[in-house]
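Two proteins were folded this term; both appear here.
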Amino acid sequence: MLKLLNKYGYFPRSCVWELTLKCNLQCKHCGSRAGKARTDELNKEQLLDLCDEMADLGVEKVTLSGGEPTLNPHWLKIAQRLTQNGIRANIISNGITWNRQLARKAKKAGLRTAAFSLDGFEQSHNYIRGVEHSWKKVLSAFAASRAENIHLSVVTTIYKHNMEELPQLKKLLQEEGVAYWQIQIGNPAGNMADNKELVLKPRDLLEIIPMVAQLKNKEDPPLVFPGDNLGYFGKYEEKLRGNGGEIDFWVGCRAGLQVLGIESNGNIKGCLSLPSQLNRENRFSEGNIKDTSLTDIWCNPDNFSYNRKFSLNNLGGFCRTCKYNEICRGGCIWTSFSHSSSKFDNPMCYYRVAVENGIIDSE
């Protein structure tokens, strides 16, 4: 896969854009430590210019994120400009500010899908979000979106308190009319690094991966999409990633290859989830649009080297000897780095755990 990308070149097919780091919650699993806005966030003109430049680069899809993106006063104008430029725009929100009036404005601006974070049933969700009314706010946001014919999506982060709730949660989402459900695991980064008792252990994957594979039943909505940090290989891989296309297995991290992340101050990363200055980490920032255009940052052959210049020699530990190493390249870089401080030695891998526990023969 990497050879094909090298042959045909890279283009940022999708982008996750942190419009502001300001947030009305301080969740225990927030990797970016959101709460206060950055002191140097982009102004309206810079934001709209980015919308235009992304269109020129060929970006197809942008997810407006945060922090809480609706706390950026220009988010509706951004959504409108992206849509006018032919870019499919959606949003991921915690639902606190969302109501029917806001949903109506979002629909008018061109948004057709809204995703909301829902991390289990009321007790589990409110615990990780730190606010008692958070769960009810999400359900209220569902109702407001349905009233305005906005497609509903949900993102669920698995942690120690909610992993057993997934099967029943799917039934709730079905009743609420949710069309798409992304399931991901919480990594020990940002706030979650301060709450390590909530972090899943590698052995938990032996329960979680078969469960998510079972939940992914196309005839039983919502459609389930495993996050990029959930997998990899073994007997459940085709079930996890098969969506009717020709490729039904993990093909490696696409940060800086087809995926782009933008921080609210203009820093550019291959993936928004990768750590940055707030976590005392600068190696994943490839430049800032205040100094260099997005196009020049993306097209710089020396940027995003962890993927664009990947070599099997980069891999360490189990990943170095794994028979899937060339295609997998260590799985999700963010997950690997947050667990092991290495970009290419990932303990949160189903195949690895299954081999180490004698469930799968590595030969």
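Next, the second protein.
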Amino acid sequence: MKPTDRKLLYRDMQEEPDKYSDQEIEAMMDDLDQVPDIEEAWQQFESEELRVKSLNSKLLKIAASFIGLLFVSGMAIAAIHIVRQSRQPQPQEKTVTTTANSQLSTLNSQLAKQDSLPQPRLYDNVPLGEILSELSAYYNIKVEYRTEDAPRLRLFYNWKPEYSLEKVIEMLNNFEWLELELENDTLYVKSTAIPAHDC
């Protein structure tokens, strides 16, 4: 019987002796008269102390791990917030409908200075408004944007002068979030669901 169980039994016998027989009470008295084994009691105390220390050590490790996890989570949330803030587009004036006629004269004067045909052009992360401004001058068409985000959409596009206007429209329509449609001499441009990081 464990010492704690023995103490509870002794206390119960003292408080309610009627519940126990005379033999049980005499056995308790004999047990109380015995000299405790100090060596055994000391070993029990040491093992209990080691168990408590081990438990405290484990609890400290768990707490330290939890605090570290909270710290790393906080840093990750802060980093995500910073990245989202840096990717938000800056407020710009709304330009839904634009024509390229004003830039047509500038590009025509540049083309007149050149003695040869225009050279192929690689547009690397260039806004669609800039690309179509140059192409509209080359193909002698007007451009109208049906959505305000369309001119800000950035593309990687490799243009060659031998491409027909229809081929250019077909190629640009292959880009996600972009729809181009030619009616008479006007190119209508519409973008759909442009993510903030592409603007």
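The longest strand covers residues 121-127. Residues 13 and 24 are 9 Å apart (CA to CA). These notes refer to the second protein only.
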